[in-house]
User: Fold this.
Amino acid sequence: MKRVLLIIAAVMLCCCLSMSGRKRDVKFSNAGTAYIERSFSTYDVLQKQIHSFAELGYMEYRSSGLLASHLESNGFRVEMGVAGIPTAFVATFGSGSPVIGLLAEYDALPGMSQDTVAYKKALKDGAPGHGCGHNLLGTGSVAGAVAISKWLAEGHQGTVVLFGCPAEEGGGGKAYMAREGCFDGVDAILDWHPDICNLVNVESGLANVQMRFTFHGVSSHASSAPEKGRSALDAVEAFNFMMNMMREHVPDGTRIHYVITDGGKAPNVVPDRAEVLYYLRNRSRAVVQDLKERAIKAAEGAAMGTGTTVEFEAVSGNFERLYNESLAQVLQRNLETVGGVEYDAREMAFAEEMLEASGINDKSVLKKPSMVLPLGADYPTLKGVSSDVGNVTWVAPTASFRAATFVPAGLGHCWQFTSSGGTTIGTKGVMNVAKVMFFTAYDLYNSPETVAKVKAEFDERRGNDFVFVPLIGDRKPPLDYRK
Assistant:
């Protein structure tokens, strides 16, 4: 009898394992995963094209057009020029609920031009380059969206929306998109960013506002008639002095940094115009709003004291991130399933050469891209960053993750990231991202209770009386944020 019971138990266990395996196969063997497995070359070409375009924020016409065209060719309905921004778009596939959104970026950084070689070599001195990997960011999200659409096309209910988001680097494009309601009605949004390792982001980051102050004075000859002049540069310097004194009297964790973007043209001419650009940051947007008001008063005082006038504007404004643990847990499971990036022999030789060129002797750092950190792992670099994704997290439930796409030979906005991100090392990360996004969307489409949990947590953390009031106010998008 005991033997019979053992046999029955063994059979039942085998049946359970078989059923579990079949259930797992549904997720891992379908049109979505099949599409990803056969599409490496497609997205290798796509990301490298955007890498070569290297267009600055609000000017990503070729980059956004390329991604939008690719989505359209795969059956997406594409609306270009949303929120009054020519390079912003929304691409939609499917119908009904749940609605899953994916964020894509594609803007480059000023002065980061770099060839895809293992040593520092600008393609064109002073030209833009993808030092933050947004050529990969946009491409990875698009690959994930198309994979999701292939599964939906098999007859499954649900909608996937790819948000083409311009000008993350200083332009804050998502704030304008959020203000115009682009993200309204989305049940869950997935976001990612290129990095040197793999983890789900649990940090709120810093809220920030970018302020431009322009002072106007009276020009005169600095030597023969200095008494006739009223120096706009004096006003900038007086303003900066007051802001630097203010650093002692701000909440902990506040960051204040600036550059003088116009200080006059010649020493012997009293400048009648001068301009300074400020970033004000803190973990709380309420503190940032207070810093903004104090900065305005300091600028007005500097103008009064120097006999000049001042104009100011908020160029961009980003909320801190609103964390959603329920959605993050789903992301974490799928990130662990997919795993990190493994270099082949050619890529490893390239990476080792880059380490040597960067003065790094410890080759063990090359293990980082293959690792997946546990949920909640401390990752200090994320504590001090600001992103316009923060605005989105307060409009719809959002979770973010980092994926290994770079050789770990630098720390952000560096030639090493620009270079390695434009190689197959970057593309391997892109395809991992596509899998993570597809698997996460699959789980959400097939688990209404998980979607409900995600939304309930979002409502509780945000509060029922929340109204999105952007830090940028009602200003129009600065289609060239440098002006």
Notes: The longest helix spans residues 2-28. The CA atoms of residues 118 and 353 lie 6 Å apart.
